Amino acid sequence: MLRSSRLILLLFAVSSLSSCLCFRAADNFSYFTCRSRQAEAKAGLESIHVLQLAYIEEHGRYGSLEEIGFEHPGKGSDRDPLYRFTVEQQGEDGFIARAEAMVPQGNVEAEDVWIMDEAGEPVNDVVGCLRPGGDL
After folding, report:
1. Chain centroid to CA 63: how far?
2. pTM
3. Average pLDDT for residues 82-93, to the nearest whole number?
């Protein structure tokens, strides 16, 4: 009787430990999946930056997405784009490009916004990927 209760206790301890490890692995998977999706935002913003630099050389001002000939990085692939790109301000002084994650309505946890100006450094304005444990 004592031996079977020890065995049951050991099995309970092992199953508890393995479930904790599974939850941790799922958190890490979600975080790194989110980070890999952010590559689309960065690639799109870098493309906008290069196109804007060429456009200002020819026209003396920064242009809209249509004027510079921007094509979405996800266009033509077998999946829907993950980010929506806009240029909020353009003119002679500079531009502000924005990449906003397209998430289901009301899904606050999945919001992710990147911005870039004429300096060319993408900045994560609204962080949508949290490390397991809530750290950035």
Report:
1. 25
2. 0.69
3. 85
